[in-house]
Amino acid sequence: MKSLKINTILNMIKTIRKNALFNIIYHLLSIIFPLITFPYISRVLMTENVGKVNFGDSYVSYFSLIASLGITTYAIRECAKVRDNREKLEETASQIFSINLCTTGLAYVLLFLSLIIFRRLDVYRNLIMIQSVVIIFTTLGADWLNSAMEDFKYITIRSIIFQIISMILMFTFVKSTSDYMKYAAISVLSTSGYNILNIVYRKKYCDIQFTLNIPWKKHMIPILLLFVMTLSQTIFNSSDITMLGFFKGDYAVGIYSTATKMEKIISNVVSSIVFVLIPRLSYMFEAEDYNKINMLLRKVLLTFITIGLPCYVGATILAKESILIIAGKGYIEGALTLQILLISFLFSLVGGSFLGNVVLLPSGNEKKFMIICCISTIFNIIANAFIIPLFGANGAAATTAASSFIIFILLIISIDKRIHIDRILQIFIAPIVGSVLMMLYCFVVKYNISNLWIKTVVCVIGGVVIYGIIQILLKNELVLEMTDKILMKYGRK
Predict the structure, then answer these.
(1) Are residues 34 and 98 located together in one domain of the fold?
(2) Which tens digits make up the pLDDT trace of 146-159?
(3) Does 370 score more than 80 pLDDT?
(4) Is the Cα dihedral 272, 278, 281, 285 positive or negative?
(5) Max CA-CA distance within the chain?
């Protein structure tokens, strides 16, 4: 019986790894394509026009939030519970989709009113209208259904196609500083255009239809709780850019948004793991099987730390070099901003990403997470109001780091006592030692090699090798398992 349970857990982990691999590929491509296009865009559009586009994105994100409410996370969780019953799945998905259409209509009404009322936005009006197409694309696509069904292969392939098309269009049509609106339109296609395909593809799982037969109380209470949580997270993530735009102008936004893009390169790798876990953990928490849950959470935390910690160290040391290579000399002020933002990433790694999204949300504790997010967001806004006028982009980054720390502390206090990860300190030993030695190596390289590209490549390759060797020597469970699988596969050949 015990052996059967272990095999079940191992099969479950195998499936999750497969899904995580596709989702990691998806997020890596969403990183790689911008790494190809952004150096070009940042130099063609220049800092101020990059700032305009990012300000518009930030502004539209608030209305995207109203449209999505807390629906995406809720829909993934609820549809995952009934995915084996096509009739119930169709009923649940249609109800949630219909709610989403109503909230989308409300979002557009509020967006149009804001453009009429706030004259400060006149210069951004056309840009914002273009970027707002994302809202309707996202709603009609109902991509949460594909996630609930764990169809990450389709999500990945579809996204690759649209990223390639968008990249070709970008190099073809964005030629001068005045083409920033074309860039915005192509970005919309890149990030949400694939939702058009979803309208046809989702019939594979169920036929989603508009309905007024909605049990509003059943859906709206958890949706609104998730909405408040998501609202606070969105304000947390967007208020820096919005307030920078009002207090310091487009140039400061351009510097800060460049640094945030670099930080997201790392955080997206981690979030790709988080995303695939929500449907599976929701199912497990529903069954209250805490033995399986705790075993899985240990694997997840180990993965987070093993990947995230060296990424943090490497990106911090090579912040200046990364900015110069990707964005150019015009954005070099963003190097310190990036280093400060990476402190936020470090706290978010174990805080919001693991304890919040992996533990609290799938277990149905969205109320706790909501309260924590609201506290940190209120702190962030108040701190931004005082610090941004004084310190600009660096001040915005510092408040983000402080807010992430607050989330981290409050989440530790709030975790269910039934969640218990065995030998938790052991998880951190190998990654910390490996990261420290990698850091020392990179410092030696940096101060002995002057050529930008050579020192960056030597740091990255040498750092990865040193870190990997240390993980093997100190018997990191994750790395040893991956190494054994590679050797077994090679041996069979």
Answers:
(1) yes
(2) 888 878 778 888 88
(3) no
(4) positive
(5) 69
